Amino acid sequence: MVEADHEDGGYDRNKELKLLDETKAGVKGLVDAGLTKLPKIFVHDNHKVNVSSPSSSSSATNVSIPVIDLGSLHEEANSRHEIVQKVKDAGEKWGFFQVVNHEIPESVLDEMLDGVRKFHEQDAEMKREFYSRDITKRVFYNTNFNFSTSEVNWRDTLYCLLAPGPLDPHQLPSICRDVIIEYLNHLKKLALTLLELLSEALGLEGNYLKDIDCAEGIFMVGNYYPPCPQPELTWGLSSHTDLGFVTILLQDQVGGLQVFHENQWFDITPFPGAFIVNLGDMMQLITNDKFMSAKHRVVAQKVGPRVSVSCSLRQHVQNECGRMYGPIKELVTKENPPIYKEMKMSDLVKLVYTTKLDYDVSSPLKHFRL
Ligand code: OGA
Ligand code: NI
Known about the structure:
Its cofactor is Fe cation. The chain is of the alpha+beta class. The chain is 28% helix and 19% strand. The protein has one domain: B-lactam Antibiotic, Isopenicillin N Synthase, Chain (Jelly Rolls). It is built from ten helices and 14 strands.
């Protein structure tokens, strides 16, 4: 592979990508091979942004995304009202919040992170059979799902479409099968609670978002960020928004996740036992920009591996994505007319998977504006 400091002569990006793909061992395979310089495909043009990350300099690090305690949800009407108010604020101002006291045992969270780590750290031969770029598969793994259209990041990923439709557990990798199933059972309940709170925060009936099928699809992503020898040259995950309605993210204690808020990047410091919840493009679209889908990214680091598990409430490219979505009728008025046209979620999924998107310049939602 061509290293970072080589001359451009003879560098063929597509060939390099193909070579990496053919190893079926991802970034983890490069690290295992003892690589000390980044292959050129990983070096980003805008990498200098990484060096001046706010985490080291500004006072911004003292501000954290809102923390919402779900523990008092069922105690009295008053506390529910307060929680809904906090969700509304967070949805409008950050598009991000953390939830604590969510009733999912910490042991399940630890086992889930451990399961994803074990998947990526298992024998390369076992992992190879899951390596694919066929996005119609329900379960597969690869490095950088969009590497032909986007910059290449220092990360490998396991993808599992857990819902809708019956999932044959045997499709899941045996090394993390049981824990994924257990995690999913808990997560579905949390997802419904969050959709209820979000519905109420929008001034709608509690079951509104569930009834328009926002929880029908669950797309799980198990990210593995190996230690990076030259973290200043690349990203773990470059700036993006999530495309679904809501993402429920679990991160380990390594850190590196940042959110863009009021023109600055903020660290999302790991908080044991907490979930990070962020709203995606579909939520921004159906709320007619009332709730925001915030940009976020993960820095590459010398320390690692870092593991995260994100579950996005969204459908995928399979043909279940028939429903049309547009700004919710109850939320639009003469003064606040619809900004977006009616669309299918699969249109957005296809766009994100096939188009070169630069999130620093615009959001994929611009393609759906009226
Ligand atoms: C994602 C994502 C953040 C993380 O998978 O979309 O933003 O912490 N992950 O890995
Ligand atoms: Ni994301």
